[in-house]
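dumping the sequnces here before i forget
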Amino acid sequence: MIATMARAATTSDVFNAIAEPQRREILVLLRAGERPVTELAQELGMTQPGASKHLRVLREVGLVRDRRAGKQRLYCLDARGLRPVHEWTGGFERFWNESFDRLDAYVQGLRPTGNTE
Amino acid sequence: MIATMARAATTSDVFNAIAEPQRREILVLLRAGERPVTELAQELGMTQPGASKHLRVLREVGLVRDRRAGKQRLYCLDARGLRPVHEWTGGFERFWNESFDRLDAYVQGLRPTGNTE
DNA sequence: TTGACGCATGCTGATATGGGCATATGATCG
DNA sequence: CGATCATATGCCCATATCAGCATGCGTCAA
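..and the predicted 3d for all of it:
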């Protein structure tokens, strides 16, 4: 393993897990309660295998848990893993609240990412 | 664009930008104030080209801005882009605060009293 | 102008990823 | 047991990504 390691495995980090838009959508959907794979896949317009793969990643970082229910497997949210992310970003709160010296003016013409959900 | 698109470009999404541990470290360092590339590279134990590349990604999603200062190029934080992330994760706050009905028990590594609802 | 310095880029190699698809695995029912 | 739904996996492909290295480019000093 002198390898070059292109990137830390997505499966090992919550930050990476939620870097995927579709995985974020899954999490949002699961706020409404546990759901079987097929239903999630359908509501998000992805294939069943696709949903399963994303769910696996989410499960491996602990953001979701699964439970057997007959033939189905119900996935439910375990958002505790998101807390570190919330806190980490929170560490920058004062930097977007305080109107920087001249930062505000400087950046006036920029367009924030604005990707809210 | 018939492509299979393996993943949304990192450069287009803040979530992706902060999925990289080293980039997060850069952001943390920049809270202390603007810094030239070489200094960042040195403090984070990465090569100068490496730092430049990460800084580029951060710049393209708007998390940092740069300013010429003689031969140097000073990078400074613009954390506003982190706000959406903070808010998105915040949308899950109640899920890690409220002690779920039986979630708490369930997850604490034990079996519920057979009370499966 | 010539260097030296500071930083950005381009290129390569190894690997991680996500999507599509076919198929294995599991569980339920007749 | 065999048929069938519900999921998980394995494979392949195209692409994204990261690290290392060499090099291009702009700036400042002599």
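Residues 34 and 76 of chain A are 4 Å apart (CA to CA).
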